[in-house]
Design brief:
This protein is mostly beta strands. It has one domain. About 10% of the residues lie in helices and about 40% in strands. The longest helix has 7 residues.
Length: about 80
């Protein structure tokens, strides 16, 4: 059994092309192998919207501009940020 230990809670800035997303109250768990973001939380906290139609993507809810397309090959939406 692997034990996940919460290290801290803070703010994270993510650059998506020309846009920047600021995530608040992010839980940092050093031994978690993946970064997990709740699209529902993004919708609650900002103008970021998520579409799960044929092409999965995050978009700016205020102007409707696509921020980033997601890769759904694993059965869950995955966003890769450089």
């Amino acid at each position: 059994m692997v034990m996940l230990i919460l290290k801290k809670i803070g703010r994270v800035r993510i650059a998506l092309g020309t846009h920047e997303i600021v995530l608040e109250k992010v839980i940092y768990i050093p031994n978690l192998r993946f970064n997990i973001v709740s699209t529902e939380r993004l919708k609650e906290d900002s103008y970021i919207r998520y579409s799960n139609f044929i092409l999965h993507y995050l978009y700016d809810g205020a102007i409707g501009e696509i921020l980033v397309k997601t890769n759904n090959l694993l059965g869950i939406p995955v966003i890769t940020v450089d």
